[in-house]
Design brief:
Layout: H1 15-27, H2 34-47, E1 51-55, H3 58-68, E2 76-79, H4 86-93, E3 97-100, H5 112-117, E4 123-129, H6 138-147, E5 151-155, E6 163-164, E7 167-168, E8 175-179, E9 192-196, H7 199-209, H8 227-237, H9 251-262, H10 264-282, E10 288-289, E11 297-298, E12 304-308, H11 314-326, H12 342-348, H13 356-362, E13 365-368, H14 376-397
Parallel strand pairs: 2-3, 2-4, 4-5, 5-8
Antiparallel strand pairs: 1-9, 6-7, 6-11, 8-9, 10-12, 12-13
Length: 398
Amino acid sequence: MLDGEIPLSAPDLSELECGLVQEVLRSGRLSNGPMIERFERLVSAHTGVRHAVGVSSGTAGLHLVLLAMGIGPGDEVITTPFSFIASSNAILYVGARPVFVDIEPKSLNMDPGYVERAITPKTKAILAVEAFGNPSHMDRYAAIAQRHELLLIEDSCEALGTTHCGRACGAFGRAGVFGFYPNKQITTGEGGMIVTDDTRLADLCRSMRNQGRAVGMPTVKPTAESPATSRAALGAWLHHERLGYNYRMSEIAAAIGVGQMRRLADIIERRQAVAQMYIDRLLDHDQIILPTIAPDSTMSWFVFVVRLVTGWTGEERNRIIAELRAHQIGAGDYFPCIHLQPFYRARFGYHPGDFPIAESVSQRTLALPFSSRTTEREVDLVCQTLSVLLNKEGITRG
């Protein structure tokens, strides 16, 4: 028996990140400095796009991309009900309407056929989410968007380091957005990154993240030696070309990101190894459906989420989660369907049964402890405990 709790997730931080943070602290430059530019260059190079724009969260990144694309009241954006709520909330932030379509049961991403059938004269964009980092169908969404002259926004907040058809996730749409919350492949504590080949869109996002100031505007650094320069800088700092937001990423967060990106290959390799350990141990369990990854995709593994087979109820799944936690094993129910969240039901009148595949999957998902630091002993204990609990619950059900 292991000592202490096995956490559902944990960041993978090293002395490299600590040293880079100390470098920032010693510099006295805590915002709008060189570290964010270093981080942006690393992410841009990794995804193969021209521009990367660091922001305060993945949610902020989605908001800015929608604004920069001119999406607003009267527009519809097709998206998935099986996601973290931020993906559709960002559509509401700009006054547009999220139009949900049901998911495909293997990948848990939107069914491309449903996407195409949901297009109306009001449709402005497709906001495609890589559920749990699975990139399946991104090429098909891109083809649909091109065919119907729609914008494709790629919510890659769970997919940094994943590829599909030899292409990095984040690079399929007009813009992609990564998230760096502590449970992601890499973390900055809080933070996100917009990636795009569109220079105009990138510049708009850079301006709007910084209170609408002009791109390339100097940072205010008053000095006694150059008062004229300081006055000019202050004037530029207080000049705002458009409505903007305080969505900047701090230099400290960017420093962590630089260290994480320099270690990305090792982090992903370890996450892939942990995922394989789970697959090897759970492959033959007749009550569990493992994640399905297409041959033309590679996974960097955001989380490790299994499903209970058809017939299990949400209440039964929740009992399994509670029992795992009682045994000091982290577990979760990723994701409750967005359309059945109280706010969405009240505002749009959704009901159970509106998206049956997403709802069926949602009540049977089970997130297991997963990070690049998860050990083989921990995986063994999780799988053994889960098997006992499923057998016990199965006897009760029978």
